[in-house]
Amino acid sequence: MISFIEIKDLIIVTFAIGYIFSGFVRLPGLITNYEKIKNSIYVAAPAVILHELMHKFVAISFGLEAIFKAYYPGLALGVILKLVNSPLLILAPGFVTIPSSTSTSISAVVAFAGPFTNLLLWIAAYFLLKMKNLSQKQVLFLALTKKINLILFIFNMIPFGPLDGAKVLNGIVSLF
Question: Exactly one of 6, 35, 52, 65 is catalytic; which is it?
Answer without folding.
Answer: 52
